[in-house]
Amino acid sequence: MLPRRPLAWLAWAFRGPPGPRGACAPGAAGAWGRRVGPRARRGCCTAPGTPEVQLTQERYPVRRLPFSTVSEQDLAAFERIVPGGVVTDPEALQAPNVDWLRTLRGCSKVLLRPRTSEEVSRILRHCHERNLAVNPQGGNTGMVGGSVPVFDEIILSTALMNRVLSFHSVSGILVCQAGCVLEELSRYVEEQDFIMPLDLGAKGSCHIGGNVATNAGGLRLLRYGSLRGTVLGLEAVLADGTVLDCLTSLRKDNTGYDLKQLFIGSEGTLGVITAVSILCPPKPRAVNVAFLGCPGFTEVLQTFSTCKGMLGEILSAFEFMDAECMQLVGCHLNLASPVQESPFYVLIETSGSNAGHDAEKLGSFLEHSLGSGLVTDGTMATDQRKVKLRDEQEDCPIAGPLEPEVQPPVSGNSAKSCVE
Length: 420
Ligand SMILES: Cc1cc2nc3c(=O)[nH]c(=O)nc-3n(C[C@H](O)[C@H](O)[C@H](O)COP(=O)(O)OP(=O)(O)OC[C@H]3O[C@@H](n4cnc5c(N)ncnc54)[C@H](O)[C@@H]3O)c2cc1C
Known about the structure:
Blueprint: H1 56-59, H2 72-81, E1 86-87, H3 90-97, E2 111-112, H4 117-130, E3 134-137, E4 154-157, E5 164-167, E6 173-177, H5 182-190, H6 208-214, H7 221-224, H8 227-230, E7 231-238, E8 243-246, H9 260-263, E9 271-279, E10 286-294, H10 297-311, E11 315-322, H11 323-333, E12 344-352, H12 355-371, E13 377-380, H13 383-394, H14 396-399, E14 409-410, E15 413-414, H15 415-419
Parallel strand pairs: 2-4, 3-4
Antiparallel strand pairs: 1-2, 5-6, 6-9, 7-8, 7-9, 10-12, 10-13, 11-12, 14-15
The structure holds flavin-adenine dinucleotide.
Flavin-adenine dinucleotide (FAD) binds next to strand 3, helix 6, strand 9 and helix 14.
């Protein structure tokens, strides 16, 4: 059941115009160093002198809907609901008003930091009664502008909703609050010999609730599937404050409607996700990474087919990037390609339980691909270099405004399937 009044949340389905591809600011190389959380590179910590991001309402022909504005009484009510969790300091509000790509800026004057679903429910009930617009925000790493207000919407941050509620060490089912940072969850389950079913370059900042709200794909999608399969249940609070409890931990649940699916990918338009139950796979014992140079896109596709055939059950990721993308990575992240210059690059990851068996399979695949001309150069990562190769691929969105998972179909084959 949806609330009577139309939802105040606006999910933005556009991106700002990308900067020139391949362009590289002089002196930028290496300035960011390695493995810094994306937040450190965004609006919140911009160097003095960086131009201010233009207001979204000035940049686009958008119209504010007739919502109320936040009054002193509203602030007092929020302070009663979340004591100490009402942020109105203009300086502290700068970063949450600007999106990760620094192309959009809202002018919210209030950010709320609840700790529990009950607090979220009370906040939304108040906003509903007062006709106040709300914009849910997780780690603010989204790339389509949905995480930041357009006008003066109240920002509802899940940053303090960061508790693990339970973890079952036999089934691998993790139940946690929506504001848990993905990287912290990864560390937590890895200590218990499991991994998160998703991994992406924004993991140091993004929240699991934001991941679910954006139906984030990431680097493990090929192996473990999308969040539509691994999210077993969730809890959400609707615009009128109603708590929707679908936080089941059942893998097989064929009772009634699967309401959680509506929230996966809903970008905050249906409610605020407050908790998630997610299935974590066991940690693979052996991981190998190969990085290859390909002479053309046709060869990338053929390499993908060959690789699926020859590596079968141990293939866990297949990703490609073009020469321009590699140039951006080199320029902005100071990383050199581990193989000779090529029009396309492919990263292949295998995950299995027997290191010797997996390395042998990957080795014969590489031999075949090099022999048949599908790839012109390649390297298999040793343990020390695995992480570096993987980071290079993960950080592509950091190096430039690219969204490798959204690609048009190419020659009857979907390029998306190649980067899953
Ligand atoms: C370096 C980098 C790499 C990335 N790699 C990938 C990738 O490989 N694959 C991929 O799919 N995406 C990728 N992304 C984008 C990705 O979608 C986001 O990084 C992430 O999933 C968003 O999580 P967040 O917590 O930052 O959400 P935010 O950016 O804060 O919010 C995103 C949207 O979800 C809504 N939202 C947030 N939390 C909630 C909640 N609790 N309830 C309801 N709505 C909510 C917001 O209103 C907004 O509409 C990448 C981004 C970066 C910066």
